[in-house]
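Dear colleagues,

As part of the handover before I leave the project, I'm documenting each prediction I ran so the next person doesn't have to rerun anything. This entry is a single chain, and its sequence is reproduced below.
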Amino acid sequence: MTPSGPDTSIQVQGLNYKFPDGSAGLADVSLNLPKGSRTLLIGANGAGKTTLLRLLAGKRLSPHNTVLIGGVDPFLTGLEGVTYLGVEWVLNPIVRTDIDVPTLLSSVGGDAYPDRRDQLVSILDIDLNWHMHAVSDGERRRVQLAMGLLRPWNLLLLDEITVDLDLLSRSEFLGFLKRETESRECTVVYATHILDNLATWPTHLVHMHMGRVRDWGAMEKFYGKEDERTKGSENSRLGEVVLGWLRRDLAERGPRPGGPGEGKPIEGDHERAG
């Protein structure tokens, strides 16, 4: 790995966060992720993944000295090279209008980074003749990813943004991210529920449950000696680790109030979805 760029290590210490309505979002979250790491952020819906990613991106104000990127508060400093791709980004209405791919890529700096633009077009198998109102959701998502990643980033925060990609496109995309971290020593935190092609991708795991970090660390911590539970399983070792976490989370949470189908919709900040 060739060291390059600013420090994008992540330090979170005793982080607590409340939603605008006063309800708890995150509680006593602490973790440390080194520069150049590729972290999977794992947890059921509502675990707090989206909230944490937005705080890391500096999109929300965190208590003083609880969130630091390379030793700097991302909200107060407005760090360059931090890219967050989440719900707001993928819902941008411009990608559903009658506009062609070259125009979209040019609008986000494609002409300034022609080699990187062409690399992403190739990796994501994008047709430059596409018009965005006439393509599938999966094809539209490929263009969105190219737009979001076109300018070189130092810290990339991804919130479940590969759900519409087919298996090959997703595999090529993940390979691109891995090469980026290895060649430029940049950092990726990726919240996802889809574990295909990820068994050897992450360097670190973070497990969240009901606004708390239950466990985190380098992959070696979780990939112990293979036991009888993983032998003959249809899942990778990563899949077995994550499924075990989620089953335990569900058992500890218990049934939702009111029983199946009777839950009361939650109003207020939509960050709770992650």
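The chain has nine helices and nine strands. The longest strand covers residues 24-33.

All the best with the project,
I.
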